[in-house]
Amino acid sequence: MSDADQQTAGKVCSERVRYTQEFLQAIRELGALQNEQAKAVIEGDADFSRFDLLLHMANEKKDHAKYALLMHIEQHHC
Ligand SMILES: [Zn+2]
Questions:
Q1: Is position 35 within any domain?
Q2: Fewer CB atoms near the end CB (10 Å): N or C, the chain?
């Protein structure tokens, strides 16, 4: 029996909720870093590019979380 068979109408899929929360968390982390970098630029901090690697990593994490959620929805039909 597949996970999809266990779905009942109107019932929230706990896995989907978890993937959604992970995606939202990744978006927030990325946003926080972008704010930090913007703050550094505004404050005239010449070393504002120090955030670039962190931003790159946060972006990848967000993408992975997004694909995991999309994949789950596609395979689970929830
Ligand atoms: Zn699901």
A1: yes
A2: N
